[in-house]
Amino acid sequence: MSWRSGSRGVVLTAYHPSGGGDAPGGRRSGQYTMNHDHSKKTADGASFDRSGSQDSLDELSMDDYWKELENIHETRGNNHEERVALVVKEPDEGELEEEWLKEAGLSNLFGESSGDSLESVVFLSTLTRTQKAAVEKRVETVTQTMRKKNKQHQIPDVRDIFRLQNDSKGKVCDGSEPSTARTSENKNETQDGTKGPKFSLGTDEQKSLLEDMPVLDTDINLEIPFAEQAANLKDSSNFRLPKDKTGTTKIGDLAPQDMKKVYSLALIELTALYDILGTEFKQQKAVKIKTKDSGLFGVPLTVLLEQDQKKVPGTKIPLIFQKLIAQIEEATLETEGLLRIPGVATRVKSLCQELEAKFYEGTFNWENVKQHDAASLLKLFIRELPQPLLTVEYLKAFQDVQNLPTKKQQLQALNLLVLLLPEANRDTLKVLLEFLQRVIDHRDKNKMTLKNVAMVMAPNLFTFHGFGSKTIEQSEFVMAAGTANVMRFMIQYQKLLWTIPKFIVNQVRKQNTERQKKEKKDKAMKKLLKKMAYDREKHEKQEKTPNDADVPQGVIRVQAPHLSKVSMAIQLTEELKAGDIVARFLSQKSGNVQTLKKEEVFLYEIGGNIGERCLDDDTYMKDLYQLNPNAEWVVKSKQS
Predict the structure, then answer these.
(1) Whole-angstrom distance, CA of residue 322 vs CA of residue 296
(2) Where are the alpha helices (DSSP H) in 551-631?
């Protein structure tokens, strides 16, 4: 962006990497006038008084947003090293949808093995009605594109792909869709009254559940697919994460093989949600550019973490990023205007160069770094990433969240988008949002409310230089207010954003169960393996362990190989929680002194219909046992 001073104020015009700024026809694009009285203040103490009326710092004011853009432009203007802008490629629709299918894990629908992969069959069998429609739409587009280009691929018919999953009523998954069962007393009961694991409801039942569930307007329903909820136009201004008896699943709680399934399902669900709402959802594609292969600023996150892990094994957040946050917090978070008041540009540039040379050597003197300079360096780090923190693929999708009809749908879309981020980006974003919340927690002293922080940080995350002038020119003010609002949502509801919706976890369970069934069925169909299968089953029954044989009904055997008490039989009760089981193990004393703290140890659900899942302490064990009766239960730390 660029600024022009005039006799009556400062006018903002679109800043182009090429240097242009005027819109066609001579009119300035995105003009914004600020009172000249609003002078800027730096960390050195220069005047920063608001207008004579002393505007409240707690009010939502776009001034903070535009001033931050001005600071960003000045910082770039003082940097004589020209950076190569990242070009966003505009592929044709067929290529775009083919890439979508690849990202969704369905690329094997095309080619020599199209449609016959066990993984694809299992995956497709668990899709909901709206998810199925989203896949069909993309397959149809790719099919038509391939035919036009006369590509020699085996092109499946959409009807063939879902033929096995469709019944006479057009439902998916043998007439059911992943969700949680609606039964008396919130227990998993089948329709005939017998207890057992249950994952899904039919479409009609799902609609009834959506209408009849006693869910408060402020609750975000994580049990029913978001696209299925889209017809329900109820909205609210505030939201909360409801408690779930089978436990809340956070990012990082699942095993990697299950997280791959989560990624595919989140992409399909997000696309289905956008389809239902009539909103276009397209991933962006960046042309590869040459980037720095060492250093701190302007280095890809993955490269930076590779460097850091040589210094500190297991590092998941860039060390420089962690240190800058720590430096800001060491002073005090009560400093007025923290994050908003910039450091001195020349000093920030000098510190940046010095850090590049001395950080990894351990010779950099942090005592010379003032708090506002550290804040400016933190924002500079985010902006200088060669690809945006929210990724080239999804940055526009994050921006476009503002266009969804209701706040609830915006929040649901953000939840799914966070699940789609690469691990390094997601982990770094999480640390950033947690830090911003700590700043807001001191708003009485620092005058940085949620709205203020969102206004200041939005330009640093969303005005990525690589998208060129075209993106900037289009509805600048709408984008500014919208991205600030998206930033506010991400800070305010960050706990929800890092939660994996229950309906997706249930779909993962369904996939694991269906895969196990199909593998067992395929083996049984082979004549040469029939006798082996029979002998194996007989052998397994005979070799049942004494522990398993001795465990009566309503009791589970919990293993804790890393603790002094390595095994314990636990009686399941209605009120028994995962945290209670962990506490029992930690209370057992032996010759070994316990060094693990309660907050470091968790109960894990392993096997059955899930790969591995770390349980939150409030998980009701009897409810979870009914959902996954074949699981093993292990107490361990996340580092084990």
Answers:
(1) 12
(2) 578-587, 621-627
Sequence-distant (6+) residues with CB within 8 A of 381 are 296, 297, 318, 320, 321, 324
Q: For the chain, list the domains and their CATH numbers.
A: 2-77 (no CATH), 93-283 (no CATH), 551-640 (3.10.20.90)
Give the Cα separation of 264 and 269 in Å (integer).
9
CA 292, 298, 300, 306 torsion-angle sign: positive
The stretches of 150-184 forming alpha helices (DSSP H) are 158-161
Task: Give the separation between CA 564 and CA 208, rounded to whole angstroms.
Answer: 50
Element containing residue 604 per DSSP (H, E): strand 601-607
Identify which of 266, 258, 260 has the alpha carbon closest to the alpha carbon of residue 605.
Answer: 258
571 forms beta bridges with: 555
pLDDT band at 138 (very low <50, low <70, confident <90, very high): confident
Angstrom distance (rounded) from CA 254 to CA 498: 12
Q: Which two tokens stand for residue 183?
A: 């039964």
Provide the token pair at 162.
Answer: 């879902």
Phi, psi angle pair for 375, to nearest 5°: -65, -40
Q: Which helix (H) or strand (E) covers residue 260, if one does?
A: helix 256-277
Beta partners for 557?
569
What sections of 466-526 are H helices per DSSP?
468-473, 476-492, 494-497, 502-525
- The predicted-structure confidence for 222-244, as pLDDT tens digits, reads as follows 888 888 888 666 677 778 888 88
Q: Quickly list DSSP for 107-144.
A: GGGSSTTTT--HHHHHHHHT--HHHHHHHHHHHHHHHH
Instruction: Give the list of residues 6+ apart from residue 198 with CB closer than 8 angstroms, or none.
Output: 180, 181, 188, 189, 190, 627
What's residue 91's pLDDT?
A: 59
Query: In terms of C-beta distances under 8 Å and separation of at least 24 residues, what long-range contacts does 432-435 make, across chains too?
Result: 432/321, 432/382, 432/389, 433/490, 433/491, 433/494, 434/494, 435/325, 435/328, 435/329
Token duo for residue 97: 């949808």
Rounded-to-integer distance, Cα 615 and Cα 249, Å: 7
- Nearest Cα to 483, choosing from 378, 386, 407, 396? 396
Whether the pLDDT of residue 634 is over 90: the answer is yes
Using CA atoms, how far residue 61 sits from 58, 281, 336, 485, in Å, is 9, 30, 17, 12
Question: If you average pLDDT over residues 132-144, what whole number do you get?
Answer: 84
Q: What sign for the dihedral angle of Cα 102, 463, 431, 374?
A: positive
Query: pLDDT value at position 488?
Result: 93
Is the pLDDT score of 338 beyond 60? yes
Residue 40: how many other CB atoms lie within 10 Å: 13
% of the chain beyond a pLDDT of 90 = 39
* Helix H or strand E encompassing 407: helix 407-420
Under the banding of pLDDT at 50, 70 and 90, the label for residue 77 is: low
Question: Which amino acid would we find at residue 135?
Answer: V
The residue among 58, 639, 43 whose CA lies nearest residue 351 is: 43
422: burial class by Cβ within 10 Å (0-12, 13-18, 19+)?
middle
Determine how β-strand 567-571 pairs with β-strand 285-286: unpaired
Q: 559 - beta bridge partners?
A: 567, 634
Residue 256 exposed, middle or buried by CB count within 10 Å (0-12, 13-18, 19+)? exposed
Instruction: Give dist(CA 4, CA 399) in Å, integer.
Output: 27
Q: Cβ distance 615 to 246 under 8 Å?
A: no
Helix (H, G, I), strand (E, B) or coil at 195: strand
